[in-house]
Amino acid sequence: MRTSRLEAFSDGVLAIIITIMVLELKVPAGHRLTDLVHTTGVGLLTYLLSFVYVGIYWNNHHHMFHLVRRIRGGVLWANLALLFCLSLFPFTTAWMNDSRFEPTPVVIYGVNLLSAAVAYFVLQTVIIRQQGPESPLRQAVGIDVKGKISPPFYLAGILSALMIDRSGWAGVGIALACYVGVAIMWIIPDRRIDRVFRQYEAQD
Could you tell me the residue range of the domain that residue 81 belongs to? Predict the structure, then answer.
C-alpha cells in the first residue's frame, strides 16, 4: 500500500499534540510581564522544549517517508507505536511543568523521550527490512550517529534525576541539560536523507 494515508494521519496526530500542549498553558491573571513570567514562564519553557521535539519528529518522519513508496502492515503498527509515545508528550510536559521540575516528573519526561526515540528506531528498522539492505533509507541513515548518541543522553538524564541530589536541583539540572542537548543536536540540519532523495528522484 502507498504511504499517503499514513503520512496524513501522522501529520494530523502531531498537529493535535501541539494544539493540546499549547492549550495547557495558563493565561496570566494580570497584564504585566511579571505576571506572565510568574504564571506562564515555566510552562512556556517546557512547551518550547516539547514543541521542538515534536517538530524534530515531524521533520524526520516527513523526510523518511520521502524515501518510502509502499508499506506493509508492520510499518503501520510501528508508526502507531511512535504516535502513541508522542501523544504522551502533553501529559508528561504538563506534569513536569505543574510540579516545577520535581525529580519524578522529570524522570517520566525522560522516559517518554527515550520511548519515542526507541519507537522511531523500530519504525525505521521495520521500513529498512521491508525494503531490503540496498534500500534508499538504509543508504540515507548510514551509521546514524545522532540516533545512537541520543538514547545514552536520555538515560543519563533519567539516572541523574533519579540518583543525584533528589532534594536539590543538581540532578534535575543535569537531566534537563541532557534533554535540551539532544534537541539542539537534532535541530542542526542533517542533509543525509535530502542527498539520497535527490539521487533517488534522478533515477526515476
Answer: 4-203
